[in-house]
Design brief:
Blueprint lengths: L12 E3 L13 H4 L2 H11 L11 H7 L2 E11 L6 E12 L4 E7 L5 E7 L2 E2 L2 E5 L3 E10 L4 E11 L12 E6 L4 E6 L22 E9 L3 E3 L3 E8 L3 E8 L11 E3 L2 E7 L7 E7 L2 H11 L2 H12 L9 E5 L5 E2 L5 E3 L4 H9 L8 E2 L6 H18 L2 H15 L1 E4 L4 E4 L13 H4 L2 H19 L2 H14 L4 E2 L1 H12 L4 H9 L4 E10 L2 E10 L10 E9 L4 E8 L3 E7 L4 E6 L11 E4 L6 H5 L3 E2 L2 E2 L6 E4 L6 E7 L5 E8 L4 E3 L6 E9 L2 E10 L2
Parallel strand pairs: 1-17, 2-12, 18-19, 19-21, 22-25, 26-32, 33-40
Antiparallel strand pairs: 2-3, 3-9, 4-8, 5-6, 5-9, 7-8, 10-11, 11-16, 12-15, 13-16, 14-15, 17-18, 20-21, 23-24, 26-27, 27-30, 28-29, 28-31, 34-35, 35-38, 36-37, 36-39, 39-40
Length: about 675
């Protein structure tokens, strides 16, 4: 999310039928430096207050007794008030047990006038906590049966700034353009602050309708296709939106204002002509933003190439303006406070990553935000300059390894923090700009580097979209798809970069003599207590006296790697990771005339005697002669499964955590591998 709203309107139009020529983007500093994503993250987290993150456990268990198939919101809204009234229709199917009560969520400040299930009024309501509601049913619904519920309610949306970027339903005047707007923003747990619903990510509705009655001067943007605008007495209108695609609860949206409509079109390869319906404040706003809005068709066509056809091609894409403080990727109609290159690209890529395929748990929010952020980088590569894309990536790496210190008002080193979200009750942690956006985008980039084949990388993205279209996915699902492309187990990568913390730094020494180039790379890590080592390939670019270059790709499979490479051309410079593939800290590269000789580099590791072999809980190293060394155990796939320090007083490896099987033990000294052995962990 970087906030975004989408609208489709068939009324008052300024339709751009012909595609304007969009010049190559010359990036402004905020786009190169990721300011749009930062604004989005700030907006998500800056005003959030402490509150229960979701329904109580017991209430969630009650809601698990049925699966939602359809929502219809039929509401009355104004562009100057947070007042809400109307009826929400919920269609669902029961599970394996009869349903004698209907559990849903609605904020406590709302009055519930009635709940009607299959034509019979509820026999009583129980309301607990901030939003837990249970309606007793006059007649139980049979197991595995469809049912329909009508929930009539009224009230005013709370103003506690509890949602990701403020209020779930908010009203504000944009001071620049003098337009008052009411808009929604339900992510992550706040849809219940404006409509009765079931806030469970894995229970997407199969379809939805959003009807909003408002003043005749307004337009209403929402999801899907605008079926009709019905004129009503008293100079009112009803906007009737229909979507027939699966949708997560937090992506259902409204935006109400006296908008001006501007339409342009995208024609992705292999797909239909897709309207992009933009609800902007007024002509002044359109004049200011038209050039940026006109980039959207090119973005949509390009993203359709790399990730598969725009998933809602049968409906539309669009934007609704609101003073939201960034953007929110509401399905088919993003809400944005303005239009910049990276903000528009970010929110659009969310239609694939977040909307079509939604993270199945908030701890996996990187599947939404990391990929949407990477969409910015892809768009800069395609529509701007290589330098702009490099600047964006360098800034992403910097912000992933640093955090803002409010006291000093400076960015300071941040050694830890995982892409995995351990505390999903914290809105601020879910939408950590540093971790869920920038570090996550860096991890996506490293997955691309790991495959070392763009055909495989983009095929993995398209397979992810087609496999989980209209559903939710978890990190393990993405991992399986990338493992299929890589042809090997990638658990080590996700252990390091998804659940692990920190990042590596590389200190490289090099020398050249007798037709050989010697490289000695020592890896250190920022948070060794959590992630003691990052197994990765590292690229080295050699520059020769004539200006030509050669790139080596070597495996850093242990903290210290020493190699000798045949190269007779005089090397004047060695660069580590010159293309910025790796998220790493500040390292060093120095020429060292005293670097190890070729004989030492090539020295074979000594054999070790270990016992008992097979072992159970302990493995003794019989001929360990050093005072202290690092022991590393890999399994049959080459994945590091155990690291432990051996000392002269206790040369014993604790193997209780290992599963039965064959393992390889390596003893690592200051200059790399010095001894090795194989052993079996018995049942």
């Amino acid at each position: 999310m970087r906030l975004a709203t989408r609208f489709l309107v068939l009324g008052c139009l300024l339709a751009g039928v012909a595609r304007a020529q969009v010049p190559t983007y010359q990036p402004a500093a905020p786009d190169r430096e990721g300011a749009a994503a930062e604004a989005c993250a700030r907006a998500h987290t800056g005003s959030a207050v402490t509150r229960p993150a979701y329904a109580s456990l017991g209430h969630r268990q009650q809601m698990a007794r049925y699966d939602v198939t359809y929502y219809k919101l039929d509401l009355r809204l104004a562009n100057t008030s947070r007042a809400v009234s109307g009826v929400v229709t919920l269609r669902a199917r029961t599970g394996s047990q009869p349903l004698d009560s209907l559990a849903f969520e609605l904020y406590t400040t709302y009055t519930i006038d009635s709940v009607v299930v299959d034509g019979r009024r509820s026999r009583g309501l129980t309301r607990r906590a901030l939003g837990d509601v249970t309606a007793g049913l006059a007649t139980a619904v049979a197991p595995n049966a469809p049912f329909s519920a009508l929930i009539y309610y009224r009230g005013t949306a709370p103003n506690g700034n509890a949602a990701a970027i403020g209020n779930a339903l908010n009203t504000r005047v944009d001071t620049r353009y003098g337009v008052s707007t009411t808009w929604s923003l339900s992510e992550p747990y706040n849809a219940y602050e404006w409509w009765p619903c079931k806030q469970v990510l894995t229970d997407k509705a199969d379809s939805s309708d959003v009807w909003v009655t408002t003043s005749g001067a307004n337009k209403v943007g929402s999801n899907g296709v605008l079926e009709r605008v019905t004129s009503l007495p008293g100079n009112e209108v009803r906007y009737e939106w229909k979507s027939r695609n699966p949708i997560a609860y937090y992506l259902i949206s409204v935006a109400v204002a006296p908008y001006l409509e501007y339409v342009n079109y995208a024609t992705p390869g292999g797909g239909p002509r897709i309207p992009i319906v933009n609800y902007v404040y007024n002509q002044a706003a359109l004049n200011d933003y038209r050039a940026e809005i006109d980039r959207t068709p090119g973005f949509l066509e390009f993203f359709s190439e790399v990730a598969g056809l725009y998933p809602f091609a049968g409906e539309k894409y669009g934007h609704s303006m609101a003073p939201i403080g960034g953007g929110m990727e509401h399905q088919t109609m993003t809400t944005q406070d303005g239009f910049t290159f990276t903000l528009t690209a970010h929110e659009l890529f969310h239609q694939w990553f977040g909307d079509n395929v939604t993270c199945g748990a908030w701890e996996d929010i990187w599947l939404n935000e990391g990929f949407a952020s990477y969409g910015e980088y892809l768009a800069l590569n395609r529509f701007s300059t290589p330098g702009a894309a490099r600047d964006w990536l360098a800034d992403a790496h910097y912000r992933a390894t640093h955090q803002y210190d409010g006291g000093s008002r400076q960015w300071v080193p941040a050694p830890g923090g995982s892409v995995f979200v351990p505390d999903t009750s914290s809105v601020g942690r879910i939408f950590s700009y540093r971790l869920s956006y920038k570090k996550a985008a860096s991890v996506v980039h490293m997955l691309r580097y790991l495959l070392h084949d763009d055909t495989k990388f983009f095929r993995a993205l398209r397979t992810y979209q087609s496999t989980y279209a209209g559903r939710t996915a978890r990190t393990r699902d993405l991992q399986r798809l990338f493992e299929a492309e890589a042809g090997r187990d990638l658990q080590y990568f996700f252990d390091q970069w998804f659940r692990g913390e920190g990042f590596p730094s590389f200190a490289v020494r090099w020398n050249q003599a007798n037709g050989l180039l010697y490289l000695h790379n020592t890896e250190t890590v920022s948070l060794p207590a959590v992630t003691p080592f990052f197994d990765t390939d590292v690229e080295y670019r050699l520059t020769f006296t004539d200006g030509s270059t050669r790139t080596l790709r070597l495996h850093q499979n242990q903290p210290v790697v020493s190699v000798a490479v045949a190269e007779s051309r005089p090397v004047v410079r060695v660069e580590v990771d010159p293309e910025q593939w790796l998220l790493s800290g500040a390292g060093s590269v120095v020429r060292d005339a005293g670097l190890v000789t070729s004989q030492r580099v090539a020295a074979a590791p000594a054999p070790l005697t270990v016992y008992p072999n097979p072992c159970r809980d302990q493995l003794h190293v019989a001929d360990f002669g050093g005072s202290r060394a690092q022991a590393e155990v890999t399994d049959a796939t080459g994945r590091v499964v155990l690291r432990q320090v051996l000392t002269a007083t206790r040369p014993v490896l604790l193997t209780t955590t290992l599963l039965p099987g064959l393992y390889h033990l390596r003893i690592l000294g200051p200059d790399g591998l010095v001894a090795q052995a194989r052993f079996v962990r018995a049942d």
